[in-house]
Amino acid sequence: MHQRHLPASPNWYCSRCSDINGKGVLGFGAKNTIYLLNVTAASPAVTGELSGHTERVSGFAFCSHDGQEHICASTSDDKTVKIWDSEQKTLLKEHNVHQNTISAVHWSPVQKLLLVTGDEKGIVVCYWLSSNDTQSFFPEPRTIFCLSCSPHEENYIAVGYKDGMIVVIDISKKGEVIHRLRGHDDEIHALAWCPQPREEPLYGRSEDNTDGGNGATEGAEVGCYLASGSRDQTMRIWSTARGKGVMTLKLPFLKRRGVGVDPALKERLWLTVHWPKRRPSQIVSSCFGGEMVMWDLMKSGKQKWSLLGSSPEGQNHSRIVFNMSSFCSGDRELLLSTSMDREIKCWDLASLECCWTLPTLGGFVYCLSFSPVGTGCLALGVGDSMIRVWNTLSIQNQYDIKTFWQGIKSKVTALAWHPLKEGSLAFGTDDGKVGVYEVYSNKPPQISSTYHRRTVYSLSWGPPVPPMSFGGSGDKPSYSLYSCAGEGVIFQHDPWKLSGEASNIDKLIRDTNSIKHKIPPHTDLSWKPDGSILAIGNEDGSIEVLKAPMLKLLCTVQQHHKIINSLCWHHEHSSQTELQYLLASGSNNATVYVHDLRSAIETPSESPVLVTEPFRTLSGHTNKITSLAWSPHHDGRLVTACYDGTSQVWDVLKEQPVCNYRGHSGRLLCVQWSAVHPDLVWTGGDDFTLQEWAVSKQEHITPPKSKKRVEIEKKRGPQKKSKKKKKAPGKGGIKPEESELPLGEEMKGAAGSGAEEGQSDNDEEEEKENADGPSVTGWSRESSVDTRGTETVQNGEKFIHAVKEEKKREKSDLSLKKRKPRSILPLSTSMDHRPKEDLQQDCLTLAAVRHSHGQSRACVPGSGDHIQLGLFTDRDALYRMFQEEEESHMEAGHYDSMVYLRLWKGDLIGAINLAVEKGELTDHLLSLAPMAGYQVWARTVEAYVKQLCHHEQFLKAASHLVSIHKLYEAINLLKSHQFYREAIALARARLQPEDPVLKDLYMSWATVLEKDGHYATAAKCYFAADSSFDAAKIVAKKGDVMSLKTAANLAWISGESELAHSLSLRCAKDLMLSQDWTAAQEVLRTQDSLLGHRLIFCVNEILTHRLADTDVVTWTVASSHTWSKSCEENFLSTVHKVWQSEFGVAAADLVKLKTLHQQLRAIENPPATTSVPMKQLLFHISLDVTLCALSQLLGEWPSALEELLQGLTRGSEAGHFTLMTEMCQLLLPQGLESVALYKQKLDTGDERSVAISQSVEAFVCYQLMYKKWWNYSETSALTNNTISNGHHLTENSHNEDEAECKGETQSDGTFSEGLWKVLLSEPHANLQATQRAIAEIQRRVTSLIQQHSQCKETRVSPEALSTSQSETSEEPGGSSSGNGSESLATLTAQVAEHHKVLSAIPELIRKYPFPDVMECCIVSLHMEKHFTLFPQHICAEATTLLHKYGTAESLCKAWQRLTH
């Protein structure tokens, strides 16, 4: 019947509300209807609906048996279970065994035609369709959330409960519980059985490792795995053979992706699980925020999951997923998912990518609008507070829809595209808001500052009218936005200045036409396409036709007599030009009128014309007309939408119906003719659907006759006359849902509607969740009537309006009998309830007493058996009666009554003392206490304070202490019970600012807040206590960048410069580690004392960019400055230039340079180790380079060269040869020539300068040695085996070095004698050999001490110790150990000898680092083996050095292979 279809949204928070059968038919519950879709991997198609439930559908499932796939079952909140034939779309059977809300349903995969359901009270009902028998079980008194029948054992059913319990029951044993599976501690949302029988071993840690296995039932003969998903954020795999959990999977926290939903909406977690039939080792589950993950149970390691839709093409859900089901389409297994984002998605389980997405609707479709610029672009205004823009011409995706929700927050009731500006869409909402969306941008909408007081009915773009039309053409927009709303007002909005105030066009209409009477409320407007004429519909049924721009009234149409709902002008591109003057109008009286206004427009008269005869009358609908649309492809063809649930196409010129569309199940609210296809029409209604249908394919010609509506009106008639005669539901009257009006619908009596105004049965609308409760504003255009008492359904949860609840409460209150209060004189009162004879005897006794003028011997009034006579004699008798009554109250514990009696006697102090003693003081007694004097009142207050504290009413107690001027006691009371905020408020209000109590309060509260992690509030307390230092420190305690930055600013504002300095530096370093250089400099800029660190960060940033193309820097930079990216100049020259231009540091300001140099020299720069992270290592190098650059500007060349040496050697010390090589190229780009330039500026007579330059030359030669070796060597395999510190370059570095050395010859480069002369330094070889020997001896001493400690602990004999020591001495590496055992004294003597040798070496040799000479000797021998031109005297010198200083065993093995 229809082409494309947007169905209603699947219901939320149901364990199984959608299912798919083996033929690819998907069914899901939406409101009280089941929708059916044919699913393929390419696209879905809505095929029909199953209607019959009266309340929300809570469950849906297909039968999985062969030949029975078309049978399905649904459950509902109406407590019925219905069995359907999905092919014939007919109801087969139903039962209502359940007495409570049904929450779970499943067909048995094994037992044929067995349907199992569960309800919220814990009842499980088994229904056999073939025999129509039912059987009920009550396994646990808990709320059932889900259930699942075993696919392998026909009698086993797993049931999940709200409290996290899972039970497996056997229905063949009267529901006996086979297993109770405990582990979850919150709601069980889904259960899924493994499709494969038996329990194969799984990877993962078991929850029961007593058997020593991996947690699975290895080699199990029976049983099957069961998966469960819970709200506790875990998924568990259970062994039903053992009745225990074997695996727990914790949901991963993934970054939320996707947009299209309001983040202000709160949502709970729903963890559904699905076990695909073809994948026994894989489970699909939902996750936080809409993600879906595939778990591989056979995968080892921590991450067992893969994300569905992880590629850029795959779009995941944006909110939580509720249901999943799968089926096999050929060789592909497809998964269907439903979500809170109101989308149904199809996934390919092989590729984990999304095949297609079907958007659904969560509210009435109020309005439709095709873009006049973007061909085929259709906008939908929906009651779920969202706008959808559909590219209906998309070829690849026939449901190419974008959703917009920002800034709306209410039902979208009106839409209008800009006539010329592409993508500009105006919208109006139920709460009176008007705005404009730019749909092709990500910006939020512009909202007009002028709000309507009620629902916006319609929007229209038209030419500006005064006052907006005044001014030049460049000062005003070409189109204004006009909005009409329920209060009857039309506003003109300036689209250029929506923040400005909109103008009410009624003033212009009054002034232009000199109208004195009241203008009727407006309900619709429509501009003629050429912008020359405006038609306005009114609440009284009249239509006013006005000429722009002054809105002069040309004519008034008095045809309708009820509210105008829709106006529409004929299009202008007709072959018959006179048709452009046709105006179609629809109202509440079900008849459409078309008026030809040509004469009134072309030849207007001086006074407005009254039009009372229509050009054409279109009759046939049986309810109000809600929308009209002319076909842009035909002449005089009109389509109408009506509350009778149908859409009618008319041939206006012939005044004949063409076809009638009846595909909707509710009332129609909007209609649009396709802008592209002449045969297609789009309609939307209150059934939550949008449908596309073809005119030529409709079987009906005219609208249906509404007999049902007449019956409803007859039944509703008596109810309007007398509210007292309402029938109870289910006793012949209609149901409450049918009798209630739709949202915002006018009362029929008020509007005077006749028989043609029928009422649809479906009056409920499901809306988006919101904290303000259900809205009662709807699609009525009866502005004068406000409605109450409506009922809405929000995704299955019923919300009854407060008015209805209040009426119920009043009725229940009236039915309760008023309880008589307890008597304060119970004894005397009880005497009045004796037999009549006794009462008459009392009269005789009273007479005798009064006339004897005294007490009778037999009677004492007010006591004993005559207590009741105390009321009728004298005061003494009354007091005696009071005394006995008090004693009675004392025994009964009614101390309040005793207090009242004493008060009545005037014994105020006695009453107070009694109340104090019994702890029964009240505010009333306290208010009377001043009558007994100040002291009594003060003591009473103190007693009342103790009583209040006993009842934990500390605030009230403190207030009473204040009343007797015990201010400090009140403050201490509040403080001692953790009411710091109130204590501070009281102290601030009543104490002097300098009172130490106030500071103590702030400090105490700050301590508590700090312990609880409320650092910001604690900081405020410290500020209030004049402890700014502590305030800044506490803010910085969190340690993140934002907190550190805030703390630094606080310290700086407070004058704590040192703290501000340290916090800013700490924050900048954190930003440096995240490579956010711009932010780091911004933080440092706030402190003048951090200029030196700014220079370091500058050097670090430039250095990072220079090393970005190497293997040193492998990370990405978050932000950087433009000056850091220049790579053209020398590195140090670039640094100097940036310093001068950006930081104002130049060579001319020597004082500033010296200060900066001294400041940076004071920074601790520890030696590099192999464990230092690369970013930290680069920072240390940057400090060395910064000091070098400052020394250069100061002209202190020895210091500059020494600091340069430190920067060069840090890479070598950290074991990063590539870094050392890159630093050599940056700092000494010409290699030895650059070193020579430095040497020219040094004093040749200064030994320190000579030693520094020698070390720099050595490291330059060291990296050149390796560069040339790798450049000319055919193999480098020996490198990793022979070189002691294991240097190696990557392939990229090797290629770069090869390119650099391409022009050098073998004789000139590889075998330069000057290079070897520098590297083969005998003094440095002696130093390094001595240091190695000392380290080796220290290692052996440590080993001896450990051996000795072990002997002490195990009490080994001296012979064993000697043997142990002997073995130790023979360990590898003991070059000077000799034979036999060694003592600690011998080793100590050896260390002393080596230290003597070490002290003999010049200090400058020891102070500055130098490459490993033995390593260089071994490299030279290796090169001599492979290159014939290598100088022999170099080899001889290297060999000599190795024999002399390479005595360590590890070195001996390396070089001896090269010399033999």
Question: Nutshell version of this structure?
Answer:
By secondary structure, the protein is α+β, with helices and mostly antiparallel strands. The protein is 34% helix and 22% strand.
Ordered list of secondary-structure elements with their pairings:
Layout: E1 2-6, E2 18-20, E3 25-30, E4 33-39, E5 44-51, E6 57-62, E7 71-76, E8 81-85, E9 90-95, E10 102-107, E11 114-119, E12 124-128, E13 133-137, E14 144-149, E15 156-161, E16 166-170, E17 176-181, E18 188-193, E19 225-230, E20 234-239, E21 244-250, E22 273-274, E23 282-286, E24 292-296, E25 305-307, E26 321-329, E27 332-339, E28 343-348, E29 353-359, E30 365-370, E31 377-382, E32 386-391, E33 401-404, E34 412-417, E35 424-429, E36 434-438, E37 446-447, E38 456-462, E39 480-485, E40 490-493, E41 503-504, H1 505-513, E42 522-527, E43 533-538, E44 543-547, E45 552-557, E46 564-569, E47 582-587, E48 592-596, H2 598-602, E49 609-611, E50 616-618, E51 625-630, E52 637-642, E53 647-651, E54 656-661, E55 668-673, E56 680-685, E57 690-694, H3 707-721, H4 736-739, H5 748-751, E58 791-794, E59 797-800, H6 802-815, H7 826-830, H8 836-851, H9 875-892, H10 895-905, H11 908-918, H12 923-928, H13 934-950, H14 954-963, H15 967-976, H16 980-990, H17 996-1012, H18 1015-1024, H19 1028-1036, H20 1041-1053, H21 1057-1073, ...
Verbal overview:
By secondary structure, the chain is of the alpha+beta class. It is 34% helix and 22% strand. The chain is built from 41 helices and 59 strands. Strands 42-43-44-45-49 form a 5-stranded mixed β-sheet, covered by helices on one side. The longest helix is centred in the last third of the chain and has 33 residues, at 1322-1354. It is extended. Mean pLDDT is 81; it is low at 205-221, 257-266, 715-778, 782-816, 1274-1311 and 1356-1380.
